[in-house]
Amino acid sequence: MSVAAVGVPADVTSSFSLTLDDWSNPLIHALTSRRPVYYGTGAAERRRRPATPLEDVSFHVVPLGALEFAAEPFGLLLIAGPSPLPVQVSWLASVLGQKIDQILGLQALTDGDRGRARERALLHSIINAVTDPILLTDTEGRLLIANARALTLFTATEEESEGRRSAVRMNNMLLSSALSSKAIEETGAARRELLLVNPADGSDLLFELLSTVTQDARQGTGVVSILRNVSDLRRASEEIEENYRRLRVAEVQARAESDRLNLIIDSVADPIVVTDAGGATSLMNEPAERLFTIPARASATEQRWVQANDAHFSSFIAGMLVSADQRRVGEIALMDPHTGDAMPVEAIAGKVLSEHGELTAVVTILHDRREAIERGQLYEQLKQASDELERKVQAATADIAHQNELLRRQAIELEQASALKSQFLANMSHEFRTPLNAMLGYTSMLLQGVAGAVPMPVRRQLGRIESNGRHLLTIINEILDISRIEAGRMPLQISRFKVHDLLSEVKAELEPIILRSKLTVTTSVPRDLPPVSTDRQKVKQILLNLVSNALKFTHQGSITIQARQSRRDRTLTLSVADTGIGIAPADQDKIFEDFRQLDNSPTRAYGGTGLGLSICRRLAQMLNGRLAVESRLGKGSTFTLTLPPQGRK
Amino acid sequence: MLVVDDYADAREMYSEYLQFSGFDVVQAANGMEALERAVADHPDIILMDLSLPVMDGWEATRRLKADDRTANIPVVALTGHALAGISEGALRAGCDAFVTKPCLPEDLVREIRKVLDAPSDSTQKKSRRSGKHAKTNV
Fold first, then answer.
1. Under a CB-based contact definition with an 8 Å cutoff, are residues B78 and B52 in contact?
2. A75, A36 in Cβ contact below 8 A?
3. How many other C-beta atoms lie within 10 A of the C-beta of residue B62?
């Protein structure tokens, strides 16, 4: 509280002080009141008189009113009587108050300016220190305050390059459109993206724009904007997005890969076990599960087998984990958990390393060696057997070569012997025939009575000589035939003839025997049977033989000679069927053998050399045909000569 | 007729039977003799065994057929050899018929009569191959 006084000694005024907080002090009270207050000098009035620099005088306290710039109340102490103060005093007081306020205001203003300038410089340095552009614009978008970074974006001097200036113009346009009240209202949020041009190099700069509208009574409405450079952020975000996308793709691929891998692993028949770096099993395929997992309802023994397998395998993996080997091949003596059989397996383990070289897994493939071992043993046995065989074969081959040589020599000798035999037989038969010819001739002459009449008993005896001579002749002829066939000296004489004629001829030649036998002999030839082309003489010889046999072995009944041609393959069959004694099935092949009669006893009932059918079969073969028999013992036999298809030659 | 055979029993047997059957018979024991007899006696027919000493039946037949004096006498070949080719050779040599031994005398006579009854023209003789073993040309 200070005092300015007129008419009062300075020492009095300067020593006077008043505590403003002391509201009980009447002076303070009076100064803050609105109306002037009178303090008289009466005894009663003295008690409530405040202490003033004024002595025993009555005075009025005239407050100067509330002053804007005054921190303390101002008032006038006017020495005057108790009468009301003139109007002029109130007016003066109000004018004075205003003046004082003005003076105080001016003073305060200059003091504030200096402080504010300091603050402003500080603020500038602070906002300049911020690397993000900060700016204050008015509602028209005009730049009021901008920090250094903002200035480079939004201001350019005339000296600067055209490019830079146009970039700045562009930025200002972009900014003012972003800051237009409409834009702020529309977006609602004060946070937007703003793409500006870097005046330094023309590149794009992406900012995040944070703007706040400030309301100021004196300055009006403005917009504070902070721009945060998010170009890098966007790149980073794009990169992240791209990376994420790649990650997704990679994940899908990895999953597919993993699925495929699982499929592959499961489809492998050999057990595969994947163990992690700690030795714990992380994956195994089905065959491996059979070895290392205890099946449901396993017996105690089976459990022990599986556990033993597990222990053996773990020990192998442990060895692998501690070793520096990248790959290890070993044998593990496992057991087949289903049978308990020893199951030696070959284990091939490989370490799987991460790209940093850390061990991530061990993949082990087990291969059942049993089959290989078995195969090896088999192979060994086979090899031994094969070697043995080879030795034998070699020995045998040498032997065979030797035998072959012997055989070759024998064959030559045999051939020579056979040729000699054939020649011999041919000669012999000639030699036989010559005397036989004379014997038969003379017998015949005697029987004809060339030498005179012959008595009956002699005739009968001559008849015996003749029939035996004829038999001998037959034998000689048959031996001759065999030797001729064997020597290949019986050429074919193909001619074309009618079967009917041939059969008649055969029947005619055998007429005497037929008449003697009292059997019925019938021939049956289809009327439309075309002539056949073959060796007539040989067919005739066969038929003569077959019919002779039929007559010989048939005691009653009939003999049927039949010719037929197959419609299907045009083969010609000539059959001779009898109702004779027949041939047992077991004997039906023997009858075609050389010198074979079923009854070989010296006292046999039927004559003949036993060469007839043998010759017939050989002749049939010469004609590319075949001779077969069907027979039932006691019922009869049917001999059938089949000749190749006719009409082709 | 002329009967040529080196085997006396056969030659005489046939001769005896031929005489019994009414033929005049002269005999020869080999080919050479046969040629002589044929020229000398000029028989109506010759029965010729093929296996003969001195000169065999084939050669003798060829010579008979080459000689104008004997060319028209029919020759019936007679042999004990039944091997294929023999009859062929006999026919080639000029034989008119072929008979295989053993041959009963009565059969032989039948053959001989057959040859004699056929026309005696030499060009037709070729077609008069007859008898059991006559061969057709194949």
1. no
2. no
3. 15
Tokens of residue A24, six digits: 């009980």
The answer to whether A437 faces chain B, any CB pair under 8 Å, is yes
For residue A595, the model assigns a pLDDT of: 63
pLDDT in tens, B90-114: 777 778 888 887 788 888 898 899 8
HSE-CB at B15 with a 13 A cutoff on CA atoms is: 17
CB–CB of A450 and B20 under 8 A?
A: yes
Coil, strand or helix at A627: strand
Q: Please answer whether residues A32 and A63 qualify as being in contact, where contact means their C-beta atoms are separated by less than 8 angstroms.
A: yes
Contact call for B9 and A495, based on CB within 8 A: no
Amino acid A177: pLDDT = 80
Give residues with Cβ within 8 angstroms of A633, minimum separation 6: A581, A582, A583, A584
Q: How far apart are CA A611 and CA A603, in angstroms?
A: 18
A contact test, residue of B13, B109, B137 with most A CBs within 10 A: B13
Q: Quick check: A473 and B16 CB within 8 A? A: no
Q: Which helix (H) or strand (E) holds B46?
A: strand B46-49
Nearest to A179 by CA among A205, A142, A206: A142
Helix H or strand E segment including B19: helix B8-20
Please report how many Cα atoms fall inside a 13 Å half-sphere around the Cα of residue A338, on the Cβ side: 3
Q: Rounded to an integer, what distance in angstroms lies between the CA atom of residue A611 and that of residue A597? A: 9
Question: In this structure, what token pair is assigned to residue A353?
Answer: 């390393």
CA distance A314 to A306: 12
Q: From A116, A93, A103, select the one nearest A69 (Cα to Cα).
A: A103
Whether residue A68 contacts residue A103, with contact meaning beta carbons closer than 8 Å, is answered with no
Tokens encoding A185: 């209202």
Contact A171, A191 (CB under 8 A): no
DSSP SS3 for B125: helix
pLDDT at B40 over 70: yes
Selected residue of B21, B86, B101 to mutate for chain A interface (largest A Cβ count, 10 A): B101
Return the structure tokens found at B19. Answer: 């005489």
Q: Which helix (H) or strand (E) holds A350?
A: strand A342-353
Q: Which residues 6+ apart lie within 8 Å of A101 measured at CB?
A: A67, A68, A69, A70
| Contact check, Cβ <8 Å, A473/B136 | no
3-state secondary structure of A489: coil
Q: Rounded to an integer, what distance in angstroms lies between the CA atom of residue A365 and that of residue A330? A: 11
Q: Which of A445, A470, A475, A492 to mutate to test the interface with B (most CBs of B within 10 A)?
A: A445
For residue B52, give how far its alpha carbon lies from the nearest alpha carbon of chain A (Å): 13
Q: Please, what is the Cα angle at A110 between A107 and A111, to 5 degrees?
A: 85
Answer for the pair A298, A306: CB distance below 8 angstroms, yes or no.
Answer: yes
Residue A202 backbone phi and psi in degrees, to 5: 80, 5
**Lookup: tokens for A89:** 């005093």
Q: In the 8-state DSSP scheme, what is residue A50?
A: P
The nearest CA of chain A is from the CA of B117 a distance in Å of 24
CB proximity A541 to B under 8 Å = no
- For the question of whether the overall pTM of this predicted structure is more than 0.90, the answer is no
Output the furthest CA–CA distance in chain A (Å, rounded): 240
**By the 8 A CB rule, do B57 and B97 touch?**
no
- Which chain B residues are Cβ-neighbours of A441 within 8 angstroms? 10, 13-14, 17, 102-105
Pick from A496, A368, A465, A482: nearest CA to A422:
A482
Compute mean pLDDT per 10 residues along chain A, 649 residues long, and list them. 70 72 72 78 73 76 74 77 79 82 79 79 81 80 81 83 86 81 55 82 84 72 81 82 89 86 80 87 85 82 86 88 86 85 88 85 87 85 88 87 87 80 73 84 89 88 88 81 75 86 90 88 90 89 90 90 87 91 85 67 58 86 90 90 72
Give, as one character, the DSSP assignment of residue A635. T
